[in-house]
Amino acid sequence: MFRMAKLTIVVAGILILMGVIGYVASGMVSPTALIPAFIGAPIGILGVLALAESRRKHAMHGAVLLALIGFAGSVPGLLQVGALLAGEAERPMAVAMQAVMAVLLAIYIALCVRSFIAARKARLAA
Question: What residues does each domain of the chain span?
């Protein structure tokens, strides 16, 4: 589970970087480009909190909840990938960022769920 705390921090860093890059690429006129950073920052804080054994379970569950909210918010971009590839997307940068965010968070959520199941099995076996 300690590895998941470190992974959480890495995923948060990627989201923050995506938000900053998206904001700069949009000419710093669209604060909505910072949404990945707004999701990534609290996830990162929870990842740091999860480094402590006494806070790990609650912090990781909180991080996954935020990731699930971020995933739900970015799914519309994932659904527009076809339009993006066809060159018909109204805001191509937004669609690309949302799609990447959705895929990143889906993978992170799946890894966390797998880790939670393994931790529970280990706890029951002990």
Answer: 2-125
pLDDT per residue over 27-42, tens digit each? 988 899 999 999 999 9
**Mean of all residue pLDDT scores within the chain:** 94
Which residue type, as a one-letter code, is found at position 21? Answer: I
pLDDT tens profile 71-118: 999 999 999 999 999 989 899 999 999 999 999 999 999 999 999 999
Question: pTM for this one?
Answer: 0.93
pLDDT for residue 1: 58
* C-alpha–C-alpha distance, residues 65 and 76, integer Å: 19
Q: What is residue 11's DSSP assignment? A: H
Cβ-contact 24, 16 below 8 angstroms? no
Rg (the chain; Cα; Å): 16
Start-to-end CA span in the chain (Å):
16
d(CA 48, CA 73): 24
**H-run or E-run covering 58:** helix 56-79
